[in-house]
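Researcher: Checking consistency across runs. Here is Large ribosomal subunit protein bL21 again:
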Amino acid sequence: MVYAVVRAGGRQEKVEVGTIVTLDRLKADVGDSVTLVPVLHVDGDTVLSAADALSEITVTAEVLGDLRGPKILIQNYKNKTGYKRRMGFRADLTRVKITSIK
Protein backbone atom coordinates (compact mmCIF):
# COMPACT_ATOMS: atom_id res chain seq x y z
CA MET A 1 0.00 0.00 0.00
CA VAL A 2 1.43 3.36 -1.06
CA TYR A 3 0.12 6.56 0.45
CA ALA A 4 1.37 9.98 1.40
CA VAL A 5 0.46 12.74 3.82
CA VAL A 6 0.47 16.09 2.02
CA ARG A 7 0.35 19.67 3.25
CA ALA A 8 -2.62 21.47 1.74
CA GLY A 9 -3.65 24.86 3.04
CA GLY A 10 -3.37 24.82 6.81
CA ARG A 11 -4.06 21.11 7.13
CA GLN A 12 -2.52 17.75 6.31
CA GLU A 13 -4.39 15.15 4.26
CA LYS A 14 -3.70 11.43 3.83
CA VAL A 15 -3.93 10.60 0.12
CA GLU A 16 -3.62 7.58 -2.15
CA VAL A 17 -3.79 7.35 -5.93
CA GLY A 18 -7.41 7.89 -6.97
CA THR A 19 -8.41 9.71 -3.78
CA ILE A 20 -10.64 12.77 -4.22
CA VAL A 21 -9.76 15.48 -1.70
CA THR A 22 -11.33 18.86 -0.99
CA LEU A 23 -8.72 21.56 -0.31
CA ASP A 24 -8.64 25.31 0.20
CA ARG A 25 -9.03 27.21 -3.07
CA LEU A 26 -6.11 26.72 -5.48
CA LYS A 27 -5.26 29.09 -8.33
CA ALA A 28 -5.75 26.51 -11.08
CA ASP A 29 -8.31 25.84 -13.80
CA VAL A 30 -10.38 22.68 -14.17
CA GLY A 31 -8.25 19.91 -15.68
CA ASP A 32 -4.92 21.45 -14.64
CA SER A 33 -2.30 19.38 -12.85
CA VAL A 34 -1.02 20.62 -9.47
CA THR A 35 1.81 19.39 -7.27
CA LEU A 36 1.27 18.94 -3.53
CA VAL A 37 4.04 19.02 -0.91
CA PRO A 38 4.48 15.65 0.88
CA VAL A 39 5.13 15.55 4.63
CA LEU A 40 5.24 11.74 4.93
CA HIS A 41 5.52 8.91 2.38
CA VAL A 42 4.69 5.27 3.13
CA ASP A 43 5.49 2.48 0.65
CA GLY A 44 4.79 -0.86 2.32
CA ASP A 45 7.27 -1.09 5.21
CA THR A 46 9.33 1.91 4.04
CA VAL A 47 8.44 5.19 5.76
CA LEU A 48 10.08 8.43 4.58
CA SER A 49 9.81 11.58 6.67
CA ALA A 50 13.21 13.26 6.22
CA ALA A 51 13.12 16.50 4.21
CA ASP A 52 15.91 15.48 1.82
CA ALA A 53 14.22 12.15 1.03
CA LEU A 54 10.82 13.80 0.57
CA SER A 55 12.24 16.30 -1.91
CA GLU A 56 12.47 13.43 -4.43
CA ILE A 57 8.80 12.44 -3.95
CA THR A 58 6.15 14.16 -6.07
CA VAL A 59 2.42 14.01 -5.48
CA THR A 60 0.41 15.24 -8.46
CA ALA A 61 -3.30 15.91 -8.60
CA GLU A 62 -5.82 16.91 -11.24
CA VAL A 63 -8.23 19.76 -10.48
CA LEU A 64 -11.85 18.60 -10.76
CA GLY A 65 -13.56 21.89 -9.93
CA ASP A 66 -14.21 24.73 -7.51
CA LEU A 67 -16.99 24.79 -4.94
CA ARG A 68 -18.15 26.59 -1.82
CA GLY A 69 -18.22 25.09 1.67
CA PRO A 70 -21.19 25.04 4.03
CA LYS A 71 -22.35 28.30 5.56
CA ILE A 72 -20.95 28.99 9.01
CA LEU A 73 -22.85 31.47 11.17
CA ILE A 74 -20.86 33.77 13.45
CA GLN A 75 -22.65 35.64 16.22
CA ASN A 76 -21.16 38.30 18.46
CA TYR A 77 -22.97 39.51 21.59
CA LYS A 78 -21.99 41.80 24.43
CA ASN A 79 -24.02 41.74 27.58
CA LYS A 80 -25.85 44.87 28.85
CA THR A 81 -24.84 47.07 25.91
CA GLY A 82 -27.33 46.02 23.25
CA TYR A 83 -24.53 44.99 20.90
CA LYS A 84 -25.40 42.08 18.61
CA ARG A 85 -23.89 41.16 15.26
CA ARG A 86 -24.51 38.19 13.02
CA MET A 87 -22.37 37.25 10.03
CA GLY A 88 -22.06 34.30 7.67
CA PHE A 89 -19.02 32.73 6.03
CA ARG A 90 -18.58 30.22 3.22
CA ALA A 91 -15.11 28.93 2.40
CA ASP A 92 -13.86 28.77 -1.21
CA LEU A 93 -12.73 25.20 -1.91
CA THR A 94 -11.19 23.16 -4.72
CA ARG A 95 -11.79 19.45 -5.32
CA VAL A 96 -8.78 17.51 -6.65
CA LYS A 97 -8.13 13.87 -7.60
CA ILE A 98 -4.71 12.38 -6.82
CA THR A 99 -3.22 11.00 -10.04
CA SER A 100 0.25 9.83 -8.99
CA ILE A 101 2.65 9.44 -6.07
CA LYS A 102 6.24 8.91 -7.24
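Researcher: Does this match what you'd expect to see?
Model: One thing to look at in this run: The longest strand covers residues 33-43.
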